[in-house]
User: What shape does this take?
Amino acid sequence: MTQILAGSRAAIGLADDLRAGAQARAADDGAIHAGIFHALAAGGGHWAADAAPHVLVIGAVKVTVRIETLSGRVNPNIASGALLTGLLRAVGEPDGAAAQVARNILDWRSPAPSLRAAAALLDSYRAARLAYGPPAVQFADLHQLSNVMGMTPVLLAKLMPEMSLYQPGDPDPRAADVIVRQAIAYAGTVNPAGTGYEGAPAIRISACAVGAAPLCRHASVSLNGITAQPAFKVDALGDGG
Assistant: This one.
């Protein structure tokens, strides 16, 4: 009998945890959509993409929402070799190593100019004891950069906060941090992305529920404007710390 009661209590506790987790997830997702609305809004209803906290209560769940622009980040799928080299230099790579890793990133995402060049790239990866070569496709996830020859875990950890796959153009120096501004200076080019919605066409929204089941959800969103069709596009959505 004692075992039955204990098992029942455990089952009830598990059900409560699952329910609380589902409520937190639903509240986070609702807060993300509220954040999109506020980012699109004009006037007093507008939330700037400045990472300032905004607190919402959805049902019985309190959620903290932050919006930050991605316009100041580097997109490794479209960045030039000069900008990639500049970014690698800005995070501390020596000039020669920065240029080589930048070339390796370009080789990873781009078709080789000939079969001979593709074979040479494969041979270089094999010489580095890697059992693969550049696939000639764009990165689907920033973590795929870890497969690029010459990319170390330490180097990737430095690059990750400076990059986004959802930034549609060159980084806007007005929205960039000091590292990306240094990268732009090294590259010798300034081509701001400021043709997008209010200078922040790509944003990241973080929604963190607090309470019995703390949970954070993050969304990368492209904004087209409140009168556009569609007004926005959710490029990525997932859990996080």
